[in-house]
Design goal:
With 270 residues, the chain is an all-alpha fold. It has 9 helices and 2 strands. Helix content is 64%, strand content 3%. The N terminus is likely disordered.
């Protein structure tokens, strides 16, 4: 069959013709001016983080950065409140302030007479009676230490509320709070108020008389869990909203995203 095809054609001429035909087949059938679109291969190590539910859309980049930084600061205040509350709990200082007054509690006793009056008031409650029954003593200096611990915790809580409410009012006036963000601000305000109420409601349970003589005065574990849980929820919400304002269509490496998630979860647990 091959001999019939090649009959009458020189072998060299046939070889050149076949090479030319095959080379034409292998060439792309596009004009020189036409180029294929370039496709960027998706990165396996990076993801795009976008603003959650558009809560940061509709305002300027500067406003987004300022509001995001403020929300991150509120998250830091909540984290600090959790840490100070834990120290107050470990030093058994939570029941040293036996009353709750919104503005009067913002300054400690100044004179020695005021300290003695506060100490005498503390002596009428179950915790001091338990200290005496266990054979221990408490001096005025000891009382001042636990008082300052609880005072610092309450003052930090009030400062957290101020850090949130004052800038929030200003940002609403400036129009830097989006429509989607306004319900969240209302939720944060309600949670901060509930947090303060639950703090006193928790302390109140530890100031009540216990049925047994040898029972250690303690706050209700359920109220304590609600108080701590509310702070953890506020911390998470502030952090999430702040990051949603600051990370707008930015690429974040997956390892950093994973480590950040682990740090947030561990800090909430702590």
């Amino acid at each position: 069959m091959l001999s019939m095809i090649t009959c009458g054609f020189p072998k060299k001429t046939l070889s050149l013709a076949l090479r030319r035909d095959f080379s034409q087949l292998l060439k792309p059938r596009f004009s020189k001016n036409v180029s294929l679109p370039k496709r960027n291969a998706p990165s396996l190590n990076k993801v795009t983080v976008r603003g959650t539910s558009g809560i940061s859309e509709g305002i300027s980049t500067r406003a987004q950065n300022i509001v995001g930084g403020w929300l991150i600061g509120c998250a830091g205040m909540c984290f600090g409140a959790i840490v100070i509350g834990g120290l107050t709990r470990l030093t058994e200082s939570g029941l040293s302030m036996v009353d709750w007054k919104l503005f009067k509690d913002m300054k400690p006793p100044k004179s020695e007479e005021e300290w003695i009056e506060e100490f005498e008031k503390y002596k009428t409650y179950p915790e001091y009676q338990h200290i005496l029954s266990s054979g221990r003593e408490m001096t005025l200096a000891d009382f001042k230490f636990i008082f300052y611990m609880e005072f610092g915790h309450r003052l930090w809580g009030r400062a957290t509320g101020m850090v949130f409410l004052l800038p929030a009012t200003f940002f609403l006036y400036k129009g830097w709070i989006t429509k989607a963000m306004k319900p969240r601000l209302a939720l944060y305000t309600a949670l901060i108020g509930f947090q303060g109420f639950m703090g006193w409601y928790m302390v109140k349970s530890g100031l009540e008389d216990k049925p047994g003589v040898n029972d250690v005065p303690r706050v209700s574990q359920y109220r304590l869990a609600a108080h701590l849980g509310t702070a953890a929820v506020l911390y998470s919400l502030f952090l999430w909203s702040g990051m949603s304002h600051l990370l707008r269509d930015k690429f974040v490496s997956l390892p950093n995203l994973f480590y950040g998630h682990v740090i947030v979860q561990c800090s909430i647990v702590i």
